Amino acid sequence: MFLLQMGATAICIALLPLSYVWIKASDDKFRKLVWVTTFLTLDLIMFGGFTRLTDSGLGCPDWPGCYGTASPFLAHAQIAAAHAALPSGPVSMVKAWIEMIHRYFATAIGVLIIAQTASAWVARIKRKSLHVSPWWPTALLLLIVVQGAFGAWTVTLKLQPVIVTTHLLLGLTLLGSLAWFAARLTPLPAYEPEIARYRAAALAGLVLLAIQLALGGWVSTNYAVLACTDFPTCNGQWIPPMNFAQGFHLWRALGMTGNGEVITQDALVAIHWTHRTFAFVVIAYLAGLALKMRRYESLRRPATGVLIVLALQFATGLSNIVLQWPLPIAVAHNGGAAVLLLLVVMLNFRTASSRLGRAAVAPREAAPA
């Protein structure tokens, strides 16, 4: 019964953006729906970061409900008992609500992607052109099912770092895939075939960013942000003592080594130092690439966005260290990484489209935004 209640809650949430698309969109409701879903997925990733950073991931220690109910309201007695038994533990009414709101929101995104999939296949049956294969939203639906499974394992395996990091990376993969999908439905700027030569460089930038996102996720899920307490050195040294074998042993419990012992400070330093050092490689490469791409009209806006977000990411990353990891800045750093991914995906899409010598949607056939 509680699953039906949770499903009804998610549908009610999803009805808000669906109503917006139905009321506001002109002839191209499908494109609007994909863009709205992309924006809400970005919001979900940021709220997921907030959930993790507030230690709310186990606010409801079962899945998908909260102590077998659809709402923390209904689990008030169990939550109160768990909090009274361990006041400093992961369970409290506030944390339970944060965790459940995240789950409601994630399920609502699933409802929106189901709506995309159904619309695309109905259009195929009716022979109505959407300028994209219905297998695109179908693949996204499968991706969000896998993402949901990792969300469940995040709770049942007690925030095991490799599971939480994979959950984050799958969310970012969903965001990037939605952005690419939305771009395919949107008219491109003026055709500039010469930007096709940047295709390989843009792809390399995306790969470097993906590695950095994985390293950042590993820092966050291991709570290694404050392993280095100064900058540009780390604990007063350029190359501090580090234990890479412990730090990058993947299958282990949170705060523990692969042998079941408490993880050492040197292991946490290795995690932090690797992410910090590789950040300079990513910043240098993407900044240089964006400066070159700004010369082209069709790439100017996303390239400028990359430069701005890189600067903000450096500032928020440094502030996390200097200001001892304040929650708003930590959430902003997580969100900035997701926005940077969106921009780099846009650069890859536009260079790839120019190489193919076509627009995503013929401007004369596309509905106005």
UniProtKB/TrEMBL annotation:
It comes from the Bacteria. One of its GO terms (cellular component) is membrane. It is found in: Membrane. GO terms for molecular function: metal ion binding; oxidoreductase activity. InterPro entries: COX15/CtaA_fam, COX15/CtaA_HemeA_synthase. It is a multi-pass membrane protein. The keyword Cell wall biogenesis/degradation does not apply. Keywords: Cell membrane, Disulfide bond, Heme biosynthesis, Iron, Membrane, Metal-binding, Oxidoreductase, Transmembrane, Transmembrane helix. One of its GO terms (biological process) is heme A biosynthetic process. Pathway: Porphyrin-containing compound metabolism. The chain crosses the membrane at residues 6-23, 35-53, 101-123, 135-156, 162-183, 195-215, 273-291, 303-323, 329-349. Its main location: membrane. This is Heme A synthase. It comes from Trinickia dinghuensis.
